[in-house]
Amino acid sequence: AVQALHDKAVKVQGFMLPLEPGERQKHFLLSAVPTTCSFCVPAGPEGLIEVRTSTPVRYTVDAVTVQGRMAVLKDDKYGLYYRIVDAEQAP
């Protein structure tokens, strides 16, 4: 069922884990659960989605919703299972 989402438009909600310094993020992880420690990853690869946006999204500890095109990954060098590209913050 998850493989059927490959290359489809999706909308997901989660908690932002920044991968770059700064208040606005264009590349981050979205976690199914909030983080409790800034140095810890709160979920395994099944609970994370890598997100790449063209317009930066303001960092927040609250849940954010993004929409974009889903990629179900095979043999990702970072061990991730999912990526959303061409993403934007959903209203």
Question: What is the fold's blueprint, element by element?
Answer:
Layout lengths: L8 E10 L5 E8 L16 E11 L5 E9 L9 E8 L2
The main pleated sheet reads as: 5 strands, mixed, barrel
Q: Output the strand order for the largest sheet.
A: 1-2-3-5-4
- Count the E strands: 5
Radius of gyration: 12 Å
List the secondary-structure elements in sequence, H or E: EEEEE
* Mean residue pLDDT: 91
* Tertiary shape: globular
Tally of alpha and pi helices = 0
Note the quaternary state here. Answer: single chain
Which regions are unreliable across 5 or more consecutive residues at pLDDT < 50? none
Q: What gap, in angstroms, lies between the N and C termini?
A: 27 Å
Percent of residues in helical segments? under 10%
